[in-house]
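Thread: sanity check for a docking pose with 2-acetamido-2-deoxy-beta-D-glucopyranose

Original post by kr_44:
Hi all, I'm comparing my docking run against an independent structure prediction. Below are the sequence and the ligand SMILES. Could someone generate the full complex and paste the C-alpha cells? I mainly care about where the ligand ends up relative to the chain.
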Amino acid sequence: MLDLTQSIVICALLGSVYASCPPRCECSEAAHTVKCVSKDLRSIPTGIPGYTRNLFIIGNQISRIGPESFKGLDNVTTLSLSNNRISEVESHTFARLRNLRSLDLSNNQLAVIHPEAFTVQNQSLRELNLSRALYNHSSVMDLATSLRWSSLGTLRGLDLSDNSLIYLPSRIFSHLASLRRLLLSNNSLVAIHNSTFSGLENLDELDLTLNALKTLTEEALRELDSMPGAALLLGENPFTCTCGIEPFALWLNRSQGRIRDAESLVCSIPESMRNTSMLSVGTKALACHQRDAGADLALQTSYVFLGIVLGFVGLIFLFVLYLNRKGIKKRIYDMRDACREVWEGYHYRFEIDSDPRLSQVSTCTEA
Ligand SMILES: *[C@@H]1O[C@H](CO)[C@@H](O)[C@H](O)[C@H]1NC(C)=O
Ligand SMILES: *[C@@H]1O[C@H](CO)[C@@H](O)[C@H](O)[C@H]1NC(C)=O
Ligand SMILES: *[C@@H]1O[C@H](CO)[C@@H](O)[C@H](O)[C@H]1NC(C)=O
Ligand SMILES: *[C@@H]1O[C@H](CO)[C@@H](O)[C@H](O)[C@H]1NC(C)=O
Ligand SMILES: *[C@@H]1O[C@H](CO)[C@@H](O)[C@H](O)[C@H]1NC(C)=O
Ligand SMILES: *[C@@H]1O[C@H](CO)[C@@H](O)[C@H](O)[C@H]1NC(C)=O
Ligand SMILES: *[C@@H]1O[C@H](CO)[C@@H](O)[C@H](O)[C@H]1NC(C)=O
Ligand SMILES: *[C@@H]1O[C@H](CO)[C@@H](O)[C@H](O)[C@H]1NC(C)=O
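Reply from moderator J.T.:
Ran it for you. Here is the predicted complex with 2-acetamido-2-deoxy-beta-D-glucopyranose included:
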C-alpha cells in the first residue's frame, strides 16, 4: 500500500520531469517554444526542455549570464534576453548553443563584455541585436574587442541602434566579413573616418539616421563609397549647410540611387537654410560665395584707403611748397637768370661759329 503510493508519487515526479517546464514559464512542445515573460526572474531558470528552439526570457530582472546558464539546449536557434538588467556577458556564454542563429540582447545595460562573449561553437550566429543594450558609450571598447574575438565571420545582421555611441573605434567591424545589414540609428555619431567601416565591402544596408552628423567630409564620402552595394539611410542628422557642405551635396546628387532617403534630407543649420532640401544645396549660393563677395569688398576698401593716403601725401607736399614759396620764387629767378646767361652764351658762340670769316680767322691763327 505504502509502496504503491510511493511509486505513484515517483511516477508523477518522473512524469512532470519528463514534460517539465520551469516554474513561471510557458512551454509549448508543439511549437518548440518556451517563454518566461515579465516574471521577476533573477537568473536563467533551470530545466528548460531540450526540444526548445525558441527561447524568450524577457522583461525579467536577470543581471548576469555565463556559460553555466545554457546547458543542454542544442536545439535553440532563437534566443531573446531583451528587457532585462544584464550588465556583464562572460566569454563563451552562448558557446554551447551550437544551432543559435539569432541572439537578442536589446534593452539591457551591458557594461562589461568579455572578449569572446558572442562566440558560438558552430559559428551559426546570423543576427545579433544590441539595440539599446550598452550601459554607456564606454562599453564600446569592450564591444569592439568582442566583435573582433567572437568568430562572427558569418554574422549577417547587427543592430546597434539607440546606444548613445559617440564614435566608432577604427576597424570595429573588420572581422564581420559576411555582414549585410548594420543599424546605427539613434546614436550620437559625429563623424565617419577612414577605416570606420573597413571590412564591410558586402554590406547591403547601413542605417545612420538620428545621429549627430553635421556633414560628411571627403574622407567620410570615400569610406561610404568603399561599400558600393550598400543602401544608405542618413535622415534626421543636423546637417550644416555652410560652405564646407558642397562636396557632400554634390556626392548626394551623384549617389541618389543608393541613398534611400535622399529626397527627405534637409539642412538644419543655419537658420536661413533650415528645411532646405540637401539636394538643392549644390546649386544654391552658400556662405562660401558670400565669403568671395566679402573678399571683393575688402579689396575695394583697400583701394579706397590707398587713394586717401596718396591724397594726403599730395596735400602735405603742396603745403610744404606753399610754406617755401619765397625761397622757391628766388630759386626760380636765379635759375631763370642762369638759364638766360647760358642761352646768351650759346647764342654768341653760334653767331661766331656761323660767320665764315671769323672761322677762317680762327683757323689761320691755329695754323
Ligand atoms: C533536439 O531535438 C531533437 C529532435 O527534435 C531531439 O531528438 C534531441 O534530443 C533534441 N536535443 C536535445 C539536447 O534535447
Ligand atoms: C552547425 O550549424 C548548422 C546551421 O548553421 C547546422 O545545420 C549544423 O547541424 C550545425 N552543426 C552542429 C554540429 O550542430
Ligand atoms: C532589436 O530589438 C529592438 C527592441 O527590442 C527591436 O525594436 C528591433 O526591431 C530589433 N532589431 C532587429 C534587427 O530585429
Ligand atoms: C560609463 O559608466 C561608467 C560606470 O558608471 C563610468 O565610470 C564612465 O565614466 C561612464 N562613461 C561615460 C562615457 O559616461
Ligand atoms: C533614442 O534612444 C534613446 C535611448 O538611447 C531613447 O530614449 C529614445 O526614445 C530613442 N529615440 C528614438 C526616436 O527612437
Ligand atoms: C586611409 O586609408 C587608406 C588605406 O585604406 C590609406 O592608404 C590612407 O593613407 C588613409 N588616409 C588617411 C587620411 O588616413
Ligand atoms: C520643417 O519642415 C517640417 C516638416 O516638413 C515642419 O514640421 C517644420 O515646421 C519645418 N520647420 C521650419 C523651420 O520651417
Ligand atoms: C543634380 O543632378 C541632376 C540630375 O539628376 C542635374 O540635373 C543637376 O544639375 C545636378 N545638380 C548639381 C548641382 O550637380
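The pocket of 2-acetamido-2-deoxy-beta-D-glucopyranose (ligand 7) is lined by residues 274-275 (CB under 6 Å). Hope that helps with the comparison, let us know if your pose agrees.
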